[in-house]
Amino acid sequence: MVSQRIKYAMAHLSRKQHTRLLARPNWRRLRRTDANIVTDPSTIPRAALRSKASKRIKIMARPKHVTKRYDLLREHPAPYHRVHPKTLAAKSTSRIRNLAVPKKRIFEQHFFQYRKPPPRDHDWDKHREIIAQLAVPKVVHRPIPFVTKKKWRPVNMRRLENLSQPVSREIPMDRDPFSVAPSALKYTMTDRMMQLVNPTGEIEVIPPRIPGAVSRAALKATASPRTVDLARPVVRPAGMETDLREDAFTVSPAALKARCSRRLKKLARPKNYKPRRH
């Protein structure tokens, strides 16, 4: 332990010797030199220069042959156009050299044709007026808005008073639903209306059905053996309880002696519904 070491040093060593031992650097905490860190990173070691490449390294150094089926340049094309090696190794012919020479351009000198000076008998006063008009800056004429002129008429005070008063409307009288219009009373029917009033064929009057009457088909029908069996009353032995009891609220003695199961007790409990949180 550390405390025992200190006690041993104080007992066997002097203060100076103990201080020297403590001043020594700890070899565990010393930073070791990394073999990969080199002063000049671009230098090549001598062993690499003297070494000879093996067959495996030579095979791996060859460029990979990519088939057309799995050509990556189809999905990711190169940013520049690929040049075929045959075009790079080709030699130019004399025809190609002649075509490669740029054409000689003949620069045509277009001399500015000056206008002829005006004659001596020219009207210089008018000429100066025209030049002065052209030298004046252009004035932008804005369109004048079209405003309709209202005709003036004298103010009529009586008319203003009549307009200021509220409108008086008469409440219409309700029409009698049983009254007949006078035009309908005076109306005369035409020949066509008379033809339409008369029925074209006989009207079939269906007699009303009597509530207690039995249909003829039911009277003439013959019952099947199944219907006859169902129509017969059920024959029960004497003393057996029927569905019709004298007292509807009587409980059978078997129900009073019966024991309730766990399932029935669980179902008999009232269900608690938790309120929904909105």
TrEMBL record:
Swiss-Prot/TrEMBL keywords: Repeat
Pfam family, one: THEG
Keyword Repeat: yes
InterPro entries to which the protein is assigned, alphabetical: SPMAP2-like, THEG
Superkingdom assignment: Eukaryota
UniProt keyword Repeat present: yes
Annotated protein name in UniProt: Testicular haploid expressed gene protein-like
